[in-house]
Amino acid sequence: MEINIQKRVLAQNETDADQNRAFFKEKNVFVLNMMSSPGSGKTETLCKTLGHLMPEIRVGVIVGDVCTTNDADRLAVTKAKVIQINTDQFGGDCHLAAHLIDASARKLGCDDLDLLIVENIGNLVCPAEFDIGEDAKTVVLSVTEGEDKPLKYPLMFQVADIAILNKVDLLPYLDFDAALAVDNMKKVHPGMPVFEISAKTEVGFEPWLEWLRQRVKEKTAR
Question: What is the mean pLDDT of residues 72-86?
Answer without folding.
Answer: 96
